[in-house]
Design brief:
By secondary structure, this protein is an alpha/beta fold. The protein folds into 2 domains: 142 residues, Response regulator (Rossmann fold); 157 residues, 3-Layer(aba) Sandwich (Rossmann fold), CATH 3.40.50. It is built from 10 helices and 12 strands.
């Protein structure tokens, strides 16, 4: 199995309207290969929140747009449905593979059962799954990240920026993946400034309850933390994070975004002056590189993990107030060097 760990950091591409395919289709037991000899391009099956979350899914979309532009593809992307089952996800991936898309990427760990079922039936199609590292199949790429490293840097920034010595963390769903964000953030705060209190709250126990797709829940959680003195709030909550950013702007405190550079997102332009920075993971680059590897005839498989070392995770520097703050920038540089040289080991739980 080929193991790849190198990322190419891609610039944010202009958003393009993704085509939609039906989630219907015949059972994949009919065929173990595509009905088309020509690769139509890559296909994204979005996680909850869908396109327009200004975060996780939109980062994947930027990777699709870049691949389409460079390779002349006409890729597609499919929105999730409320209350859908694993069987619905399986049928979606199956349909995309059967139609001739390659690679087919499940954007989020919720696609793990579907990828498990479909990948073996379409051995000539490369499947990717973001945020899951459980696959050993020869045609599956596990696109994963050291989220805790970028979150540590976000914690450093929060500790240097707070004036009340109270900061907040809002997690979308209480699952191990989001625990990594919280753990890194808390450690970054504690290592930078002793005595700073970190308030943590998870919006829901399961994704089906809307933890990643409910801005109103995010806003309410942030309001509570702000009422308790937080003047910096970090959200790892997908679409729900928009509510956290809105609350921060309303109270003129700092928000820290996630996954994409949320300072640059058009839909958040009204709040951007309150977005201190964003803990980014290069989902865009991961999607693009997987598509490129398929086009080049050397499909990536196995674990492909983004880190500070390879540019797979980072902290954005778009807000001039943040970029020009020497004390914050010096602290972040020191922390980043420590993580890279191994003198700082960031916790994941």
């Amino acid at each position: 199995m080929r193991r790849v760990s190198r990322f190419t950091v891609a610039g944010v591409a202009a958003a393009a309207l993704a085509l939609t395919v039906s989630a219907c289709g015949s059972s994949s037991s009919e065929s173990s290969s595509s009905d088309s000899d020509k690769n139509l391009g890559l296909a994204l099956a979005y996680d909850v929140g869908g396109k327009g979350d200004q975060s996780f899914n939109d980062a994947a979309t930027a990777g699709l747009d870049k691949a389409d532009k460079e390779f002349g593809y006409k890729s597609t992307a499919v929105e999730p449905q409320d209350g859908e089952s694993d069987a619905d996800k399986t049928q979606r991936l199956e349909t995309l593979a059967k139609q001739g898309y390659n690679p087919v990427i499940g954007v989020g760990f919720a696609y793990a059962p579907a990828v498990k079922e479909v990948a073996s039936k379409y051995p000539d199609t490369t499947f990717g799954i973001v945020d899951d590292n459980s696959f050993t199949e020869k045609n599956v790429a596990n696109l994963v990240f050291h989220e805790e490293q970028a979150s540590y840097l976000a914690g450093v920034a929060a500790a240097k920026a707070t004036k009340t010595n109270t900061v907040g963390f809002v997690g979308g769903v209480d699952v191990p993946l989001i625990h990594k964000f919280e753990a890194g953030f808390k450690q970054g705060v504690e290592d930078t400034k002793k005595g700073v209190k970190v308030q943590s709250q998870y919006l829901t126990e399961t994704a089906a309850e809307g933890g990643f797709s409910s801005p109103d829940k995010g806003e309410s959680a942030a309001e509570g933390q702000i009422d308790d003195g937080a003047d910096v709030v970090y959200a790892a909550a997908g679409l729900s994070g928009q509510g956290v950013i809105k609350a921060a702007a309303a109270h003129k405190i700092w928000a820290i975004g996630v996954d994409s550079d949320q300072y640059k997102q058009t839909a958040l332009a009204a709040y951007k002056d309150s977005i201190l920075t964003s803990a980014m993971k290069n989902v865009e680059g991961a999607v693009y590189e997987l598509a490129k590897s398929v086009k080049d005839g050397k499909p990536e498989t196995g674990e492909i993990r983004g880190s500070l070392d390879n540019g797979g995770v980072s902290l954005s520097n778009s807000n001039p107030t943040f970029a020009d703050n020497t004390a914050i920038q010096d602290a972040i540089k020191k922390a980043e060097e420590g993580i890279k040289d191994g003198s700082i080991t960031v916790k994941t739980s």
